[in-house]
Amino acid sequence: QKVYNALTIKALIERWSGAEATMDTNVGGEFALWGGSIHGINRQISNKLIVQDWKEKNWSAFSKCTFNLSESGGTTTLELLHDNIPSGSVKSIDNGWDEYYLTPLKELVESSL
């Protein structure tokens, strides 16, 4: 639940990202991260699965992000699948997931939540 909350609650997203965010957790609801430089639509959303149409400002089309959350023995595993990334953005997206998204999210969840 802590990981899901950190992915979906505006105030928590802003804590781990360090930037303005919006998040409508309804199916079809819009989200924006880092002041809108990344934005999209929540296509499926539950505490175990989040599927988003996901786009950087300069991309012509949406990609698809799928977050699968599972728990075993008090440990949460987040599996991320990001499809349809424009070929020129693959390396920066790969680095960005680690540096700006998953690492700070993990640090927040493991600290004070």
The H-and-E topology, N to C, reads as: HHEEEEEEH
* Biggest sheet features: 6 strands, antiparallel
Proportion of helical residues: 25-40%
Q: Indicate the mean pLDDT.
A: 95
Biggest sheet strand order reads 1-2-3-4-5-6
Q: How many DSSP E strands? A: 6
How much β-strand is present in the residues? 35-45%
In angstroms, what separates the terminal alpha carbons? 10 Å
Written overview of the protein:
Strand 2 and strand 3 form a beta hairpin. The protein starts with a helix and ends with a helix. It is 33% helix and 36% strand. Helix 1 (2-8) crosses helix 2 (10-17). It has a six-stranded antiparallel sheet with strand order 1-2-3-4-5-6, covered by helices on one side. The chain is globular, with a radius of gyration of 13 Å. The protein contains three helices and six strands, in the order H-H-E-E-E-E-E-E-H. By secondary structure, it is α+β, with helices and mostly antiparallel strands. The protein has helices at 2-8, 10-17, 90-111, and strands at 22-23, 30-33, 38-45, 49-56, 63-72, 75-83.
List descriptors.
113 residues; alpha+beta; 6-stranded antiparallel beta sheet; globular
Secondary structure elements and their pairing?
Blueprint: H1 2-8, H2 10-17, E1 22-23, E2 30-33, E3 38-45, E4 49-56, E5 63-72, E6 75-83, H3 90-111
Antiparallel strand pairs: 1-2, 2-3, 3-4, 4-5, 5-6
Helix pairs in contact: 1-2, 1-3, 2-3
Compact description:
This protein is α+β, with helices and mostly antiparallel strands. Helix content is 33%, strand content 36%.
